[in-house]
Fold:
Amino acid sequence: MARPWRGIIAEYGDRLPHVENVVTLNEGGTPLVHAPHLDALTGATVYVKVEGANPTGSFKDRGMTMAISRVVDEGVTLVAAASTGNTSASAAAYAVRAGIGCAVILPAGKIAAGKLAQAIVHGATLVAVDGNFDDCLRIVRGLTDSYPVALVNSINPYRLQGQKTAAFEVVDVLGDAPDIHVLPVGNAGNITAYWMGYSEYAGRRTSAAFEDSAGRLAPVASRVPRMWGVQAEGAAPLVKGVPVEHPETVATAIRIGNPASWGYAIEARDSSGGWIESVTDAQILDTQAMLAAKVGVFVEPASAASVAGLVQAAGRGLVPEGATIVCTVTGNGLKDTATALGSHIVEPTVIAPTVEAAVQALGL
Ligand code: AN7
Structure:
């Protein structure tokens, strides 16, 4: 019999570190949507994992339920996060559920309006920094080193534990791992987490794994996918092989120049036989519009990067015919409507309140 989704800790607790006080918004269980339009563009069978359907509108909730539950177990009453917007939105909401305080350290002027609104309505204390995300993360590390404040960025290993459950869900729906998994890469926590999740479901272990997490349970998958990571051209340290001092991209969520999980991302790329490439802002915006107009899924710009990278790879002949491919679309388009609308005219024609006027306006 069907039952409601209970959140990732209840659903996958046997593959997660134990937490006593579960703080949840029933995150996870997100749609894996087949996208025939992307099949036609690539010659593969393509699904999008719609992480914007999580409670705060991004994949961050999977990691935040673990991290905040652990913070409560430890008796800490204040958390802090550096963020390009989604981590802070999620941390703020889960802190509310835990009844603890939340401080968010953000790059001034570079957070999408919807994400900023989330931190505000959930009651977080906002600190805007004259600097970029990398500066914010350095500040949060300094704060949490010296004060009784728990850090809930993805360098907190509990975050990645929660985020790995998205890979479990893909396998549970498809029956095995896909051939290829594509995702946008910023601070590189998510690619690390997916690689860990796919590996553990296939009975393998990665460097990011907790000590007791491999070999305890029978494998569910017979294989692991190739991991394809996509960065924005102006913020592509993993493609260039060196940190980017002044990252710039329209996809503010991935405007990150020195990813914290750098080494793990390279491990995911190399041990899966994958790659990490970049796409331009124009490709990101075109793909965001295409996903909305042809697939029916409205994602934020950073999320469109994964699909833009896939389409680019297809154009270069790198997509194997008939492969099963999953693209994670990480965040909801509603968080950043200003970028999505751009210069489009949003004022509809105003008509008299009659059926006849509507008929005329619609040209029926
Ligand atoms: C929509 O919120 O880093 O490579 O501070 O919001 O795991 O960092 C967000 C990252 C992709 C990149 N898509 O994931 C933050 C933050 C969206 C995001 C990423 C982010 P990672």
User: Anything to note?
Assistant: The chain has a mean pLDDT of 96. The radius of gyration is 20 Å.
